[in-house]
């Protein structure tokens, strides 16, 4: 039997229900949201808007952790890229298409060199190989060196450094000229960089004694015989007219915290005999605890052509290196931020570059007017930053790779790699090559960066 409920009956039922609630004194429960005990908010920067590119091609490459300017697993050779693949072989790829053209070797190290179209590589056993652009072997040289850290060609000689050892190989024939090994127990490390002037090779080492300090050694380039050594002298600024110019290591005979100086020793290239000294002086504010700081933006220097730059804590100064006198004054001065900066000892596009070691990004001082330019342009911490031509290329910790214009700072393109690991960027023949997470990504260079 169906029961009909009229409108009047419905109203009566609702009224009765409300009355019962009122009589019982019951009320609906009140729920209060718990407020945060501590709370902050940080405004986000505007979204970086640029075209998201897809790679023209990708290829699997090896990965390595050592940070050295001489170590690389990708080099450009004409219209090819030579890469170290995941199997430890050298592979030649067509630069535009990524097509593999040839492969060579096994257990190769991420140390590659292209010199006038000849490709040099070395394997884990210390065998050095020279190949032509088509992957054909010119020669091999068994050096039996371990822990190799560089291959360098100077004139008609290929030099291979490996810790406290280094070898010289004839670039035309592969004949080993000589091998040097510093076996004295006071030697603890060798610099990968070498310098040759005339028939003299110079290399620097860390030497331990009562105190550890830098030492430079000179060798005969023909025989490898040691000619001389100078303790507490840095890798040369330059060599000119038979004289070596080298910054002296002040430790432990450091000056007082107010009267600072950079000393440059002038040494005979052939004998190492001290022929003179240059002293660049300035004053600094005394620290409260009387300590003396050095390194980075404090009390370091480098030579760029004729320009001798000295980082003097809050000031960067420039001298004309070849117009030295005892009372010489700086040609120019700039203010510099020093507390979170590390100089890269590089001048490019009229700018002095630094690394911000808090963010990992690039910062520069415009030498024309002292303006500071921040190239830390991404929206996540910087893992890799490179400036090539007109481009600023940044690999971020979120796996995003971004390109910006060097002068306008405008974003140009974005590439998603999915990996927080990045290697140095390469630009060649209208293409940009990005190393990330064991892959090589190739993209066309946008017109804005040409």
UniProtKB/TrEMBL annotation:
One Pfam family linked to the record: PQQ_2
PANTHER family, A to Z: CELL SURFACE PROTEIN, OUTER MEMBRANE PROTEIN ASSEMBLY FACTOR BAMB
Taxonomy, superkingdom: Bacteria
UniProt name for this protein: PQQ-binding-like beta-propeller repeat protein
Signal peptide: 1-28
Native organism taxonomy: Bacteria, Bacillati, Bacillota, Bacilli, Bacillales
Positions of transmembrane segments: none
Biological source species: Paenibacillus medicaginis
Stretches assigned to the Pyrrolo-quinoline quinone repeat domain: 76-273
Keywords linked to the UniProt accession: Signal
SMART domains found in the cross-reference section: PQQ
